[in-house]
Recover the amino acids of this structure.
């Protein structure tokens, strides 16, 4: 896919976001519906970091978009479900 | 004599009188009666026989044990021999003690032990004219089934149930069309290695032992702690301090004596992992840390063994099945190199509700059985993320990563740099500085604010920034990382070592240990 053009920058997308483990704790919620101008999961995560005290860098997480592991720089589309999944290790 | 046999009917009233004592405030007695049915057959009468010299000795020993153990004043037991009718008194136990509590306990102990240990034969006469001997000898060598001694049996056939040779019965699972005798034979021929005997491992091993797998390996280096028990429910509080692998093995052997249970009280490392995995067909990862998870993953990929992985966190968890035997994706196809312990919580740090690992362990056992039995509906190339607080379930497809180091080429196993080689102890940070270390405090800003680093020559770079920030980490010389407990700094040091920085160390025990040492 080509990089989103300047017109995409202004576009507002409705996305559903789910949080797991440490992120759920830090966000204080399991999921929420958002309207965002973020174009990629990375931009979305940066935007959310301004709102919640997320301590994990994106490199330590996985993001899934619509039930597929995604890339941090893939374009987001209106209606996407974005899931941030931190590694967990408890047993 | 405190224990004796009687050919004549037992008279409880006169026996009770022998236990009277002005110092005693409590008397407890038990009577076992002859019942008119046993294991579905109508019984008309009974005959008891005993090898008296041996049986009396064992009976006396039991009474003496009860007196010593519970501190009761008097105890006695009489067992009938000869022919008995329905309703006759077969065995009598009486105990008198200062207080009722000990009297009850000692009475219960005596009847239970007599049933298990005293060699007595019983011949049952059935309604249809048949009869049969039930041999009670060798009871002491048989596995103890304490539930047999529990009060739900009405007593009379004192010696019937515990001593029939019991064999595992898989009929309930063999009734499934997908299992049947063929599936049962497959389970019997399979060998499963369970790594970790904790919250996940307990349900995994229990269901696999119950199902009748042929060999079950149990690895755990830890000893039982009381804080384990809310989620590790096969253990007993009184076993705290004992090695969990051995406790678990004893419990699994009791559950199913058919299974070849092999406990390993050890920590997995790069040297022993391959040799252990080679002896098994399937591995279940029930560990609580990423370094072991990666170690297992890498070894299973190399040896092409299926691996069922689960991890839990508070109220949620993740489940993944790795199938190197089918060239499927692995743990490293999901999680990057940077995934280290200390970044993510484990049960002791983050807390966990008991049924959460219970459920994930059950899912692991289920997936393991599906693989062994080649059942449909296996998890496949999917990461299952389940939040049990909200009961929401997410399935994410996992693809084999083209850049996954495990599939690309042979790589060193994750734990190649042992923690001991990375950890250094100092009494003060000044000492470390004098020894030529560049000191980096990797705690979060909030932590540093609350508890400033004790020493002036310290740089503060939070962990995430150190590992992933810019400018890139580039120490000039030897470098000592520190955090609150030494856990995160060890993880960060391991990560940096893995990236090729040879001179990175971690302060053992972190600031907490520094404070302790400076106070002592």
């Amino acid at each position: 896919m080509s990089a989103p053009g300047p017109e995409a920058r202004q576009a507002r997308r409705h996305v559903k976001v789910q949080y797991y483990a440490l992120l759920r704790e830090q966000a204080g919620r399991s999921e929420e519906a958002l309207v965002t101008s973020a174009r990629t999961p990375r931009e979305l995560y940066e935007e959310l970091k301004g709102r919640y005290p997320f301590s994990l860098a994106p490199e330590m997480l996985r993001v899934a978009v619509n039930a597929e592991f995604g890339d941090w720089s893939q374009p987001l589309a209106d209606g996407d479900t974005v899931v941030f999944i931190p590694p967990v290790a408890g047993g | 004599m405190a224990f004796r046999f009687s050919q004549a009917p037992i008279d409880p009233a006169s026996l009770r009188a022998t236990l009277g004592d002005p110092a005693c405030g409590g008397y407890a007695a038990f009577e076992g009666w002859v019942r008119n049915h046993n294991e579905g057959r109508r019984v008309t009468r009974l005959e008891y026989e005993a090898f008296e010299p041996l049986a009396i000795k064992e009976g006396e020993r039991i009474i003496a044990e009860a007196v010593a153990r519970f501190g009761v004043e008097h105890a006695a037991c009489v067992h009938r021999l000869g022919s008995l009718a329905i309703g006759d008194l077969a065995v009598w136990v009486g105990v008198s003690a200062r207080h009722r509590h000990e009297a009850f306990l000692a009475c219960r102990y005596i009847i239970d032990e007599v049933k298990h240990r005293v060699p007595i034969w019983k011949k049952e006469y059935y309604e249809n004219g048949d009869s049969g001997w039930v041999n009670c000898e060798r009871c002491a060598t048989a596995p103890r089934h304490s539930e047999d001694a529990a009060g739900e049996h009405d007593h009379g056939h004192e010696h019937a149930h515990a001593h029939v040779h019991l064999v595992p019965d898989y009929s309930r699972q063999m009734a499934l069309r997908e299992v049947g005798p063929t599936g049962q034979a497959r389970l019997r021929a399979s060998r499963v290695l369970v790594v970790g005997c904790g919250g996940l491992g307990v349900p995994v091993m229990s269901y696999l032992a119950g199902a009748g797998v042929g060999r079950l390996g149990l690895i755990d280096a830890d000893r039982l702690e009381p804080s384990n028990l809310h989620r590790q429910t096969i253990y007993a509080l009184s076993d705290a301090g004992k090695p969990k692998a051995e406790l678990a093995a004893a419990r699994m052997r009791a559950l199913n004596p058919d299974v070849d249970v092999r406990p390993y009280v050890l920590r997995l490392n790069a040297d022993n992992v391959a040799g252990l995995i080679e002896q098994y067909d399937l591995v279940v990862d029930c560990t609580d840390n990423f370094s072991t998870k990666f170690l297992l993953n890498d070894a299973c990929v190399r040896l092409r063994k299926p691996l069922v992985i689960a991890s839990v966190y508070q109220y949620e968890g993740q489940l993944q099945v790795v199938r190197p035997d089918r060239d499927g994706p692995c743990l490293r196809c999901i999680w990057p190199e940077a995934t280290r312990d200390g970044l993510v919580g484990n049960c002791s740090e983050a807390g966990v509700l008991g049924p959460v690992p219970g459920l994930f362990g059950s899912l692991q056992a289920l997936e393991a059985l599906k693989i062994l039995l080649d059942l449909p509906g296996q998890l496949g190339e999917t990461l299952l993320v389940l939040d049990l607080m909200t009961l929401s379930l997410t399935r994410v497809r996992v693809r084999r990563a083209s850049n996954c180091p495990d599939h690309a080429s042979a790589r060193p196993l994750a734990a190649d740099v042992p923690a001991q080689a990375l950890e250094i102890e100092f009494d003060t940070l000044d000492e470390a500085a004098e020894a030529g270390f560049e000191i980096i405090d990797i705690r979060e800003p909030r932590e540093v604010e609350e508890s400033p680093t004790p020493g002036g020559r310290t740089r503060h770079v939070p962990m995430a920034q150190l590992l992933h920030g810019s400018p890139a980490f580039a120490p000039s010389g030897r470098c000592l990382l520190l955090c609150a407990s030494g856990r995160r700094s060890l993880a960060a040091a391991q990560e940096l070592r893995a990236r090729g920085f040879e001179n990175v160390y971690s302060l053992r025990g972190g600031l907490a240990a520094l404070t302790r040492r400076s106070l002592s």
Remarks:
- Chain B touches chain A through 51 residues (CB under 8 Å).
